[in-house]
Amino acid sequence: MSHKIAPSILSADFLNLQRDIEMLNESEADWIHCDVMDGTFVPNISFGFPIIKQVSKIAKKPLDVHLMIVQPEKYINEVRDAGAYLMNVHLEASPHLHRTISAIHDAGMKAGVTLNPHTPVSLLEDIIQDVDLVLIMSVNPGFGGQKFIERSLEKVKMLKRMITERNLSTLIEVDGGINLQTCKQMVDAGADVLVAGNAVFSDADPKGMIHKLKSIE
Ligand code: DX5
Ligand code: ZN
Q1: What is the pLDDT of residue 216?
Q2: What is the model's pLDDT at position 1?
Q3: Could you tell me if 77 and 100 are in contact, meaning their C-beta atoms sit under 8 angstroms apart?
Q4: S-S: 175 plus which of 5, 110, 195, 197, CB 3.0-4.6 Å?
């Protein structure tokens, strides 16, 4: 299976969001990544459920919602009602992760667990079998356009080993600092889904950049 590309609309032009979503609809993007920030879990505030709901009305690709918020379990129904396909919660923000993952599934969504750069992959040992996807942060969450943290390559390789050894079909997603070079490195390491914000939206030809990211072998 070839890897998926999930452009992050954090770097889209919010004054022309409809135009940018239509561009993604016409592109080879597989998912649309929506970054929700609360100013508490991360030092920035982005957008919330009303915006995602509007996006879902015109988006022709599944919405991958990345919640960088405390107490994500409080908003499962809101995320579902906003049109999410997949709900990503941070392990660091979820003391009762097993319960939260079950509730996300009960609400009819795919469930993802996200790890900050300092959180070891080994903490997934007793939850990996219950999640559809693991999102490895390759920057400290909060902002687009940051520098890729090299150590995350090793984490993806370790996670891939864990998934293969247990004969699971869990997807590995990577988020932060993805460009043509780091995308290739991550695909080689075993990543299945690559989020790209700045690389796509700061390019003069975003659709062309998505094509290039998608064509990496
Ligand atoms: C960071 C967000 C990312 C961000 C990625 O907190 O979770 O999804 O948009 O941005 P780039 O690709 O610009 O590093
Ligand atoms: Zn994200």
Answers
A1: 97
A2: 73
A3: no
A4: 195
- Relative to the alpha carbon of 44, which ligand is closest? 1
| Fold held by 4-215 | TIM Barrel (3.20.20)
| 5 CB-near residues (< 8 Å, 6+ apart) | 28, 29, 30, 31, 193, 194, 196, 210, 213, 214
Adjacent-strand bridge partners of 137? 175
Domain residues of the chain, as ranges? Answer: 4-215
Predicted local distance difference test score (pLDDT) of residue 112: 99
Name beta bridge partners: 63.
32
pLDDT along the chain (217 residues), means of 10: 95 98 98 98 98 98 99 98 99 98 98 98 98 99 98 98 98 98 98 98 98 97
Catalytic residue among 35, 64, 132, 192: 35
Structure tokens given for 180? 């043509």
Instruction: Clarify whether 35 is annotated catalytic.
Output: yes
Nearest C-alpha neighbor of 114 from the set 143, 138, 79: 138
Q: Is 142 in the pocket of ligand 1 (CB under 6 A)?
A: yes
Distance, CA of 191 to CA of 185 (rounded, Å): 9
CB count, 10 Å around CB of 71?
Answer: 15
Ligand 2 centre from 164 Cα, in Å? Answer: 25
- Which atom of ligand 1 is least distant from the CA of 33? 8
